[in-house]
Write a structure and sequence with these properties.
Layout lengths: L2 E14 L3 E8 L3 E7 L18 E7 L7 E10 L7 H17 L7 H15 L4 H15 L19 E3 L7 E2 L9 E3 L1 H10 L14 H19 L4 H11 L2
Parallel strand pairs: 3-5
Antiparallel strand pairs: 1-2, 1-4, 2-3, 4-5, 6-7, 6-8
Bound molecules: zinc ion.
The site of zinc ion has 8 residues, from strand 7.
Length: about 250
């Protein structure tokens, strides 16, 4: 049985039997896998602290014939989101991991998605402003999947820099001049400028991009509509984040 070694991101885990865990992880080179971490729930397990969602590490595993589950040999963490200083950031870790889990393809590699996920772990561990990072991540994730609408007006092809609207039941943008009225998700010019800048900025440069709390809310709503449309459901972790905010 060949042993594979890979650069991997932990997405989630769940219990198996008395002492084990199943680990869902995304590899850089062979897509998403599910593996058994033997004894992971025992005290002093060698997996202690290595299986938190969004941990990046080197994993070694082997595949068993005609089984969907691989067997983990080890998972050596190289970067953990637990390095984040703020409790707020930790609240988002599950959300980022759930989004990656939903979009990571089984059994074939998506190098760009892996790199996006890995850069988010680095940014979280490095103390990046978390709300801004979440909007950046959503934008790039949806873009990589080819489902982010064009940043120009679908009616007149003009710029959105004066502000835009995502009309009800439509998942695209119209400029403020062509907006039909009757509601929809309003996107202020500040939010549009953030998107335009985020499209060419590395996550380490987030500090230099402006995004007010109000503009972040606008994008959060628009992104949630896009995510729910394409996943045909609302993510549990997204709901939890909203509830946490309302409870403050
Ligand atoms: Zn227009």
């Amino acid at each position: 049985m060949p042993v594979y070694k890979a650069d991997a991101l932990v997405l989630r885990t769940y219990k198996l039997g008395e002492a084990d865990r199943i680990v869902v992880f995304m590899t850089r080179d062979r897509g998403k896998k599910r593996g058994v971490a033997k004894g992971a729930r025992r005290p002093r397990s060698r997996y202690m602290g290595a299986l938190e969602p969004l941990t990046r590490g080197e994993v070694a595993y082997f595949e068993r014939e005609q089984r969907d589950l691989v067997q983990l040999n080890y998972l050596d963490p190289v970067r953990s989101p637990l390095l984040a200083q703020s409790g707020d950031a930790l609240g988002y870790v599950g959300y980022f991991a759930e989004l990656l889990d939903e979009w990571a393809p089984e059994a074939h590699a998506d190098e760009r998605l892996f790199r996006l996920g890995a850069s988010m772990v680095d940014a979280i561990a490095g103390g990046a402003p978390i709300e801004k990072l979440a909007r950046y991540f959503e934008y790039w994730l949806l873009r990589l999947q080819g489902v982010y609408p064009a940043l120009s007006c679908v009616d007149c092809a003009g710029t959105l820099l004066g502000g835009a609207v995502m009309p009800p039941r439509a998942h695209l943008f119209v400029c403020d001049r062509c907006a039909p009225g009757g509601g929809g998700t309003e996107i202020s010019s500040g939010a549009v400028r953030f998107l335009a800048a985020a499209g060419s900025a590395a996550p380490e440069r987030l500090e230099s991009l402006g995004l007010t709390a109000a503009a972040s809310r606008e994008l959060e709503t628009a992104h949630r509509r896009l995510i729910n449309l394409h996943l045909e459901k609302e993510l549990k972790s997204a709901r939890v984040l909203r509830e946490m905010r309302h409870a403050r």
